[in-house]
Design the sequence.
């Protein structure tokens, strides 16, 4: 009997070791781009050209990072990206709390239809709606006031619940509000609160953590979104990811100043600059992730996207 | 008798009124910025659209734009095909890998939280430009599959399959980066599986392999559907696929105009929605067959 037990334990341990090996190999693949960013950004020109230097630079240098910093115009783009994403996230949080609350608390007519439509907004590809949206804002621009190059179009769309991944934010609120006991609402109503008061003073007060979570998600997604943003902002307000997108063309004009070599060596050095710029541009998001990593994963888990 | 009915009516009205009051901004936005554009793009695709001093001018051209898209434009069809190859190779790989990783992470391992945090990390840092730079510098994968003997054997056997494989491994790390959210969805699904069912299966001497296919996969099927839709949509969003770029360029091209861009966008969206539809058809049925608890007499009959 004990021998059998020992056998089972041995087998389990072996299985565990195999699992660890698989997970570590996978992690290596996951992190490979990041590791390359870090490694390339710290290499000196000679290390980059040297084919025997693979991961660890022989001599550390921060030159690549400095060049990338200059070309990203970080002091400007970082601040722009921060306020722009925060603003849109604020609008999105507000409207998805209203919508999620309506779905969770009221049995209005055609509720199922609207719920389905909310999910559809997630599935409908952006290109199919962006053309009429552009046309609409062009008409407004010609008749009222400047639209393109200002944050107005995206703010309007966010306020009316058509920002990026709005459906998921609504789902997160919907599932949270459903968990709040209805008795609390009823108690407030008996005490004479109207619907708006119940919503603001009872529900929103109780869902502070959810509000924060939705805000963070929206912030990250708006930060990383470039398709709609570039269509409406036309780079009039320079944002960090957008700057990274056109980094190559900026670099082509300024690049000569840094006196790199010719041909393939030049290309490899460019690679190092590009990876440095990419690394810098994702650092703010990495910092956010370090802070609220657990909440993010919990948030997706509890979003009820899996349809229970 | 009449009072409860009146009260019901009142409650119903109240729910309708307040429900729609809270829904109002979203519904307005949905109609203006999503529903109407969705239909209008379809209408535009049959028109010639140009911006003049008097505003937008449209002229009906029939299926001319579609003709251009499919037959005259030499770049559109190759772009669509490569988008299809991408969805066909990336999406199943992402689903399978994230399911396997979720299964592994669902065991009580040490550093489980660490691995989970790591696999979720790309969700936060992934953006179009980041992916573009990574692919542009060849940092999206470390495998040179073209040199492998096995790959060459596959190539001899069937070159489209080999091309698909090459496409997949060219950006292998990028493919992994899309597994972030599916992994979390799968883990939360796995944790909801009733332990009693698994234990009962074990007592009946089912192997882990049998448990996986007979219990875990059927229970988790709805989540596979959600993860599949999520993945297809995610793959469509990023400018990994050339079609997005083509549509973007067409929008700014004043010669061909927005009509052609609309036709591009519509064809692209139709294909993406069709892929979602296919995923739905394949993975849907699990929910429609609730486990039937047999009465004793029926059980006896079934046993005979």
Sequence:
């Amino acid at each position: 009997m004990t021998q059998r037990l020992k056998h089972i334990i041995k087998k389990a341990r072996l299985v565990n070791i195999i699992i660890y090996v698989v997970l570590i190999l996978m992690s290596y693949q996951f992190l490979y781009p990041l590791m390359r960013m870090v490694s390339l950004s710290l290499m000196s020109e000679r290390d980059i050209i040297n084919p025997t230097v693979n991961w660890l630079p022989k001599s550390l240098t921060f030159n690549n990072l400095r060049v990338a910093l200059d070309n990203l115009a970080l002091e400007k783009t970082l601040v722009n990206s921060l306020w722009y994403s925060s603003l849109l996230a604020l609008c999105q949080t507000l409207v998805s709390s209203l919508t999620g609350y309506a779905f969770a608390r009221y049995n209005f007519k055609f509720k199922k239809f609207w719920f389905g439509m909310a999910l559809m907004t997630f599935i409908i590809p952006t290109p199919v709606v962006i053309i009429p949206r552009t046309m609409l804002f062009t008409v407004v621009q010609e008749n009222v006031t400047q639209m393109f190059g200002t944050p107005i179009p995206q703010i309007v769309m966010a306020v009316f619940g058509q920002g990026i991944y709005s459906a998921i934010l609504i789902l997160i609120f919907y599932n949270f509000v459903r968990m709040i006991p209805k008795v609390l609402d009823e108690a407030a109503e008996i005490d004479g609160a109207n619907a708006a008061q119940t919503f603001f003073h009872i529900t929103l007060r109780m869902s502070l953590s959810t509000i924060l979570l939705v805000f963070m998600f929206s912030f990250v997604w708006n930060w990383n979104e470039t398709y709609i943003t570039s269509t409406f902002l036309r780079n009039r307000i320079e944002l960090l990811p957008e700057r990274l997108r056109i980094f190559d063309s900026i670099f082509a004009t300024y690049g000569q100043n840094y006196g790199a070599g010719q041909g393939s060596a030049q290309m490899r050095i460019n690679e190092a600059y590009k990876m440095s710029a990419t690394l810098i541009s994702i650092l703010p998001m990495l910092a956010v992730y370090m802070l609220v990593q657990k909440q993010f994963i919990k948030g997706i888990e509890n979003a009820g996207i899996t349809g229970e | 008798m009449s009072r409860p009915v009146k009260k019901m009516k009142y409650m119903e009205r109240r729910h309708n009124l307040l429900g729609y009051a809270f829904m109002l901004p979203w519904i307005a936005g949905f109609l203006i910025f999503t529903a109407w554009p969705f239909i209008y793009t379809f209408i535009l695709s049959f028109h010639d659209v140009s911006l003049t001093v008097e505003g937008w001018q449209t002229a009906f051209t029939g299926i001319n734009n579609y003709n251009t898209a499919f037959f005259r434009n030499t770049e559109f069809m190759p772009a669509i095909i490569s988008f299809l190859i991408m969805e066909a190779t990336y999406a199943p790989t992402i689903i399978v890998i994230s399911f396997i990783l979720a299964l592994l992470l669902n065991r009580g391992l040490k550093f489980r939280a660490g691995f989970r945090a790591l696999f979720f990390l790309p969700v936060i840092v992934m953006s179009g430009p980041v992916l573009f730079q990574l692919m542009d510098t060849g940092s999206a994968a470390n495998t040179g599959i073209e040199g492998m003997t096995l790959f060459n054997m596959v190539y001899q056997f069937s070159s489209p399959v080999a091309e698909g494989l090459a496409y997949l491994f060219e950006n292998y790390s990028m493919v992994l980066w899309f597994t972030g959210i599916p992994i979390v969805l799968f883990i939360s699904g796995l944790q909801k599986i009733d332990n009693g069912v698994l234990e009962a299966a074990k007592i009946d001497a089912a192997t882990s392999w049998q448990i996986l296919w007979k219990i875990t996969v059927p229970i988790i099927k709805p989540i596979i559907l959600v993860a599949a839709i999520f993945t297809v949509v995610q793959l469509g969003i990023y400018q990994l696929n050339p079609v997005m770029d083509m549509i973007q360029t067409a929008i700014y091209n004043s010669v061909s105009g927005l009509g052609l861009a609309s036709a591009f966008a519509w064809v692209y969206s139709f294909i993406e929605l069709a892929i979602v539809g296919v995923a739905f058809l394949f993975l849907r049925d699990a929910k429609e067959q609730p486990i039937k608890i047999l009465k004793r007499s029926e059980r006896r009959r079934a046993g005979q």
The mean pLDDT of chain A is 85. Residues 184 and 202 of chain A are 7 Å apart (CA to CA). The first helix of chain A runs from residue 2 to 41. Residues 2-25+35-69+246-295 of chain A form one domain.
